[in-house]
Specification:
This protein is α/β, with parallel strands linked by helices. It folds into two domains: 2-249 and 456-479, Aldehyde Dehydrogenase, Chain A, domain 1 (3-Layer(aba) Sandwich), CATH 3.40.605; 254-445, Aldehyde Dehydrogenase, Chain A, domain 2 (3-Layer(aba) Sandwich), CATH 3.40.309.10. The chain has helices spanning 40-58, 62-78, 80-91, 95-119, 152-165, 180-192, 206-215, 228-238, 263-275, 292-307, 327-342, 379-382, 398-405, 421-430, 463-469, and strands at residues 2-3, 6-8, 11-13, 20-25, 30-36, 124-127, 131-139, 142-146, 169-173, 199-201, 219-225, 244-248, 254-257, 287-291, 346-349, 369-372, 389-395, 413-417, 435-438, 457-458, 471-479. Helix 2 packs antiparallel against helix 4 (95-119) and helix 3 crosses helix 4 (95-119). Bound molecules: nicotinamide-adenine-dinucleotide. Nicotinamide-adenine-dinucleotide binds next to helix 7 and helix 8.
């Protein structure tokens, strides 16, 4: 069985403990590879390598850093099929989705920051006839990047690329549930000629390897994407050590549909925003609010279209719904479907584990599920489920739906469907979320600030925001005369 290795100081090495963790293919429910069970000792080696590489990397001319990062991007593109297949096997997502979305975006992340770094400039502030201030932006040194399992290579590279673009050296940890493409990225970095120690990848559990990164005194900043509870724990550990923190956490996003929307476009997109990646995208709209005059028509058509979605082997080109990521996660999602029924909800379609025949008979598949009849403030409508489950609910007024939308502890993204521009802008101003999509979903311009409010996180990724996070400003004030 394949044993993955850590990537430290440019080399692929086994964990110090010699211990490995089972890695499952969720579509077949079987262990297919082993990953290093790393801890403090591995992280210490990685930090040492990163520290040793830092001065050289920070002083490498921007154009040269850019060229190496572009090479990584090209190699990701050249390995598209291999990486997409690996992502699909590791995560359960349809290979078609990984081919269209995950892997191209990982290449784009490297390309975007390879070019951003040569355009990143600092500010100067002239004081009337007396002084000039200029602001230097120094890289921080060694930084930690920790990512989740839902969009493995996509989110891993979204952190690593700006960190190294800004001149830092990185100790990164992918999710122990989906480590494979991060491992393949180590091979790509070797081929691309990324100097040793600039990127180090440690595999293992959050509580051991992840926590060792967060707590290492030489790690100056942590960029974390994952669950809100983990974010809270990391904040508690890192804050007294005065580390910079960027936290991208959970969501419970509203999808608000007004009767005047472009119906066909809304329907097609709502199917995606509800069930893409088996609903395991932090930006999925899991609470669908529909203006009452449209509610019955929407319900009938939506349920019919959901019933047509093909649940199947992630390798098949026709599959729209693949496996959820793990058995514990499947059980968690199913327990929320159970809870929804206890809370008085009616299941309009789905609601069960789907047993497939053949190769995937033991895989972790859940039917796309639509539930109605719940109050906006019940647990099902307040807690993040992170699976192929949405609730639908009618509303009458803007005030009412805003109250529903903003009632949750989260505030990551939101979607509005209306042809009325005044209403769209009015609502966009009042929704408590870091991102508002109007008549679209997951339309991403990588220059824009990305992140959430309330329990969905602290700070923004994307564009120059990420380069600012990964640098420390220093103002120099020169008296002129
Ligand atoms: P998770 O919090 O369980 O794990 C995320 C990462 O943190 C993993 O690599 C894990 O090993 C590590 N980790 C766990 N405990 C740790 C600790 N004590 N110290 C350091 N690291 C630790 O999250 P998950 O289940 O992998 O991912 C799903 C969650 O991620 C959902 O809540 C989802 O909404 C969220 N998410 C948010 C965004 C966003 O951009 N806001 C994007 C994707 C996913």
């Amino acid at each position: 069985m394949q044993k993955l290795q850590n990537y430290i100081n440019g080399e692929l090495v086994p964990p110090v403990s010699g211990q490995y963790i089972d890695n499952y293919d969720p579509a077949i429910g079987e262990v297919y590879s082993l990953i290093p069970d790393s801890g403090e000792a591995d992280v210490a080696q990685a930090v040492e390598a990163a520290q040793a590489a830092f001065e050289g990397w920070a002083n490498t001319p921007a154009e040269q850093r850019s060229r190496i990062m572009l090479r990584v991007s090209e190699l990701i593109e050249q390995n598209l099929d291999r990486l997409a297949k690996a992502e699909s096997v590791d995560n359960g997502k349809p290979v078609s989705l990984a081919t269209k979305v995950d892997i191209p975006r990982a290449a784009k992340n490297f390309r975007f920051y390879a070019t951003a770094l040569v355009h990143f400039a600092s500010e100067a502030h002239a004081m009337e006839n007396s002084a000039i201030n200029y602001t230097l932006r120094h890289p921080l040194g060694v930084v930690g990047c920790i990512s989740p399992w839902n969009l493995p290579l996509y989110l891993f590279t979204w952190k690593i690329a700006p960190a190294i673009a800004a001149g830092n050296c990185v100790v990164a940890k992918p999710s122990e549930i989906t480590p494979m493409t991060a491992y393949l990225l180590s091979e790509i970095c070797q081929q691309a000629g990324l100097p040793k120690g600039v990127l180090n990848i440690i595999h293992g559990y959050g509580g051991s390897a992840g926590s060792a990164i967060v707590n290492h005194p030489k790690v100056k900043a942590i960029s974390f994407t994952g669950g809100t509870k983990t974010g809270e724990l990391i904040a508690r550990e890192a804050a007294p050590k005065f580390k910079k923190l960027s936290l991208e956490l959970g969501g419970k996003n509203p999808n608000i549909i007004f009767a005047d929307c472009n119906y066909e476009e809304m329907m097609e997109t709502t199917l995606r925003s509800s069930f893409a990646n088996q609903g395991q995208i932090c930006l999925c709209g899991s609470r669908v609010f529909v203006e009452r005059p449209l509610y019955e028509k929407f319900k009938t058509d939506f349920v019919q279209r959901v019933n047509e979605m093909i649940i199947g082997d992630p390798e098949a080109a026709t599959t729209r719904i693949g496996a959820v990521v793990s058995e514990p996660h499947m059980n968690k999602v199913l327990s929320y479907i159970e809870l929804a029924q206890q809370e008085g909800g009616t299941i309009l379609t789905g609601g069960n584990r789907r047993k497939l025949s053949g190769r995937c008979e033991n895989g972790y598949f859940i039917e796309p599920t639509v539930i109605e009849g719940l109050s906006y403030d019940c647990r099902t409508n307040q807690e993040e489920i992170f699976g192929p489950v949405v609730t639908i609910m009618p509303f009458d007024t803007e005030e009412e739906v805003l109250k529903y939308a903003n009632s949750v502890q989260y505030g990551l993204s939101s979607t509005l469907w209306t042809e009325n521009l005044s209403r769209a802008t009015r609502m966009a101003h009042q929704i408590e979320a870091g991102i508002v999509w109007v008549n679209c979903w997951l339309l991403r311009d990588l220059r824009t600030p990305f992140g959430g409010v309330k329990a969905s996180g602290v700070g923004r990724e994307g564009g120059f925001d990420a380069l600012e996070f990964f640098t420390e400003p220093k103002n120099v004030c020169i008296k002129m005369y």
